[in-house]
């Protein structure tokens, strides 16, 4: 079966559909600058989303889940949930009401926040995006000093939740607050990369607070374009995977070749690698294109990412993970991030973007 895309780039970028974005905001003691940046940047986020003509104001909804931790690690709250709203001022007010403090041990209750997001009141037919902003991992992934080493006390498994999100058409983007996440946790980045891949999403590095609005808006715009290709190609992808027994990687290569030949373009978030100078010093090649995985040149971490991606639950993955040190240790980087910039551009669709489309096609209910 040969792929034939009847969508032109103009049709892709002129498509209009609702967009729901759920913010999962870490509200532990280090996070106040990020909360403030998200609140102060909401107008920029909206303007970026509206500027391409894909949406009217009423097409956009924003929700918020602030998270800390379970007692006895944290006594204030586990989650604070704010439902979706199209009222941007109301959403900004919700963000302003969140203050950063406490948190107890280092891991937090990201798993519970993901579960709440998965159960949120998403609109049928909307592009569904979860953006998690954090500098710590969830409980149960094997980090030192974890007060709940088996995972959430409520028996919520983040890998199971991510699988459910993928089936429901919810894409997860994790915005990793750097350098804290990479300096303080040996396996958190690997975990988050595997987790996000289950939904067709990915991990984004954040070092400069000024680029946070661009990372959020760019993630959403990438997800919107991705959903268009999922709708167009899902039946064909499943047919090739099931009837012709062709691997996902081969399908991705074929589809990518077809789309590139057809001149298809995709909204693309372009962001500097915040450890550029460190990686150059270590002899590691650099790409400013965000879909060039930061771990790509550090092969020791790749296997762990795949383990988290393929595992059905935390217990299964923990039995297979090989601790190899954090990304900075693996790549002999001293951890001083370079200056960071970010922009949303329209570029020829990349192979990684096609791979995310394939993942969504194969897991959707």
TrEMBL record:
Occurrences of domain VWFA (ranges): 20-224
SUPFAM superfamilies registered for this protein in UniProt: vWA-like (SSF53300)
Coiled coil stretches, renumbered: none
InterPro entries tied to this protein: Thr-specific_kinase-like, VWF_A, vWFA_dom_sf
GO cellular component: cytoplasm
GO MF annotations in UniProt: protein serine/threonine kinase activity
A Pfam family assignment: VWA
UniProt xrefs under PROSITE patterns: VWFA
Top-level taxon: Eukaryota
Cited PANTHER family: ALPHA-PROTEIN KINASE VWKA, DUF659 DOMAIN-CONTAINING PROTEIN
Name of protein: VWFA domain-containing protein
């Amino acid at each position: 079966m040969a792929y034939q895309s009847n969508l032109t780039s103009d049709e892709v970028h002129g498509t209009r559909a609702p967009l729901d974005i759920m913010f999962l905001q870490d509200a532990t003691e280090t996070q106040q600058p990020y909360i403030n940046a998200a609140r102060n940047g909401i107008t920029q986020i909206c303007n970026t989303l509206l500027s391409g003509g894909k949406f009217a104001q009423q097409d956009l909804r924003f929700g918020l889940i602030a998270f800390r931790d379970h007692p006895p690690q944290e006594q204030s709250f586990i989650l604070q949930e704010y439902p979706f709203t199209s009222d941007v001022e109301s959403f900004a007010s919700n963000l302003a009401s969140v203050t950063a403090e406490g948190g107890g041990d280092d891991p937090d209750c990201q798993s519970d926040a993901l579960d709440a997001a998965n159960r949120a009141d998403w609109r049928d037919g909307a592009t569904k995006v979860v953006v998690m902003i954090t500098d710590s991992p969830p409980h149960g992934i094997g980090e030192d000093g974890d007060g709940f080493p088996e995972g959430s006390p409520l028996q919520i498994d983040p890998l199971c939740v991510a699988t459910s999100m993928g089936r429901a058409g919810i894409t997860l983007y994790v915005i990793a607050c750097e350098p804290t996440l990479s300096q303080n946790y040996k396996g958190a980045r690997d975990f988050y990369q595997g987790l996000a891949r289950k939904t067709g999403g990915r991990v984004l590095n954040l070092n400069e607070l000024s680029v946070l609005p661009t990372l959020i808006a760019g993630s959403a715009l990438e997800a919107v374009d991705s959903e268009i290709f999922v709708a167009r190609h899902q039946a064909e992808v499943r047919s090739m995977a099931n009837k012709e027994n062709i691997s996902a990687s081969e399908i991705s290569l074929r589809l990518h070749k077809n789309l590139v030949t057809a001149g298809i373009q995709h909204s693309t978030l372009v962001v500097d690698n915040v450890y550029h100078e460190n990686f150059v010093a270590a002899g590691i090649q650099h790409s400013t294109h965000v879909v060039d995985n930061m771990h790509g040149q550090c092969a020791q971490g790749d296997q762990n990412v795949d383990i988290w991606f393929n595992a059905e639950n935390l217990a299964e993955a923990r039995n297979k993970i090989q601790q190899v040190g954090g990304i900075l240790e693996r790549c002999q980087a001293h951890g001083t991030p370079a200056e960071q910039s970010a922009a949303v551009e329209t570029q020829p669709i990349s192979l990684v973007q096609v791979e995310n489309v394939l993942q969504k096609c194969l897991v959707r209910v």
